[in-house]
Amino acid sequence: MNIAKRQIFIFAATGVAFALLFAQLYSNFLHVSPAIFFPFDRLSESEVIGGVIRYLNEPGLKYRFYLGLVDKWDSPELYNLSLELLKKGQLNTEFGPYRSSLGVQGLIYGVAYAHGVSLESLKIACAFLTALCVMLVSAGLWKGVAPGLGLSFYISILLSPWMAIFASHLYWSPFLWFLPAVFALGAYFAKEPGARVVMLSLVFASFFLKCLAGYEYISSIAVLTGAIFFIDIFLPSPRYSIKKNVGFLILIFVLCVSAFLLAFFIHAGLRGDSLVAGIKDIIEADVKRRTYSDNPNEYPEVFRESLRAGPFGVLGTYILTWDRPVIYGVNGGLFVIGLLGAVAAIVFKALRKDPTAKRDAAILAVFFAAPVSWFVLAKGHSFIHTHLNYVLWYLGCVAAVIFVNFSGWIPPWRAGNRKKSGRGEAIAPDRALTSAGGRVE
After folding, report:
1. How many CB atoms lie within 10 A of CB 268?
2. 39 prior amide bond cis, ω within 30
3. CA distance 218 to 207
4. Buried/exposed 365-403: b ≥16 CB within 10 Å, e otherwise
5. Which of 143, 170, 296, 412 is the least crowded, having the fewest Cβ atoms under 10 Å away?
């Protein structure tokens, strides 16, 4: 295949892959997620609709929180009532702001709706942006680590019953989960210092935006963001030196923490009569409730069991107990077997002195750490929200399990079946497309 035909093929294949992913994420086109899981989390989306209604009635930035409910929490018809009020452009007098975050998505979607963008168009845009970010992360992993890892990441999202219900949800706006990683990959591939500075600035901006939209899953998102630099340390032909990769990891950490603190202080300033009062209120009312508390009895009964639960028990639930497939056609009970199989594949490679054993171990470790960080740090939240938080396994871990098992056990993927790279060195076939760059000091 000549270069022109190859480029046309790659362009066409990428277009088809994106179209398929977008259709699946928006409409469950492949019926990956059973119909019983729809509609999904209407309470949270009602808060966005409430925020849109409020913006229509009071446009601008003059109020503190941009999400809220138009009726009481226990209203069985809350979502439908919100839609009805949205069509009428009315703001219910019982509107209650959601104070646990600034809720910037309510402001953004409110501005869009006020300028003629329908609610359904906003959901389409949300799914579109999520699909685009997933494609970019997949491409980055394909090029930077191994084609098989990029393909595994794409498949894990395409066939995920969980991503199908989250992707077009206006509260969760899951493209915000992947956006910092997209810019981190941009920094990883940047050839000029100026371009790298721009990409790293966008890492900060996108993580800041995510924190303004809600603090859920931020530890997992931060790990996903830095993953490429961690993995690069263990590649047979790394792009950067160990020193540079460690420096980038520290910088990513600083950027994410700084973005979080900026959003947190803005939020705290709006939450209390003073910054200190706001910080105290957030910590006592939200942070401890979602994480750990020395005195669970201080909180309503619905939260007490979660605060008494141990982190390892919560983690065990997410590893061992699934109520739906991991990916389409693969029973959730097989997830732990896949994890153990991946570990065994790494050990098998190490015993054979395969140079990609360390790479696979790094891939599995960092992508396993992403969801586990939230399960453990936000133990209270994870105990209660088992109807939500399984989605965190798709921030790389399911992809890692697929890739490492295939790389270790399936003959065509095995590092032992080597080919020669353009530089004449022996490399694994699943690394062949990414070996030409060599180390950048």
Report:
1. 20
2. yes
3. 8
4. ebbbbbbbbbbbbbbbbbbbeeebbbbbbbbbbbbbbbb
5. 412
As a residue count, the chain comes to 441
Q: In this model, does residue 373 exceed pLDDT 60?
A: yes
For 187-235, write each residue's pLDDT tens digit.
Answer: 999 999 999 999 999 999 999 999 999 999 999 999 999 999 999 999 9
- Report which of 292, 322, 323 is spatially closest to residue 308, judged by C-alpha positions: 292
pLDDT 10s digits, 85-134: 888 877 655 678 888 999 999 999 999 999 999 999 999 999 999 999 99
d(CA 389, CA 361): 24
Using an 8 Å Cβ cutoff, are 375 and 382 in contact?
A: yes
Q: How far apart are CA 25 and CA 74, in angstroms?
A: 30
For residue 319, give the nearest of 294, 293, 337, 301 by alpha carbon.
337
In which residue are the tokens 């050839």 written? Answer: 191
DSSP label at residue 426 = E
Where does 146-300 have alpha helices with state H?
147-158, 161-166, 175-189, 193-213, 218-232, 242-271, 275-282, 288-290
* Structure confidence by residue, pLDDT tens digits, 166-176: 999 999 999 99
Handedness of CA 162, 165, 167, 169 (dihedral sign): negative
**pLDDT score for 430:** 43
Structure tokens at 113: 């709706």
- Tell me the pairing of strands 419-420 and 426-427: antiparallel
Instruction: Determine the 3-state secondary structure of 433 from DSSP.
Output: helix
By the 8 A CB rule, do 236 and 438 touch? no
In this structure, are residues 61 and 95 in contact, taking their beta carbons and an 8 Å threshold? no
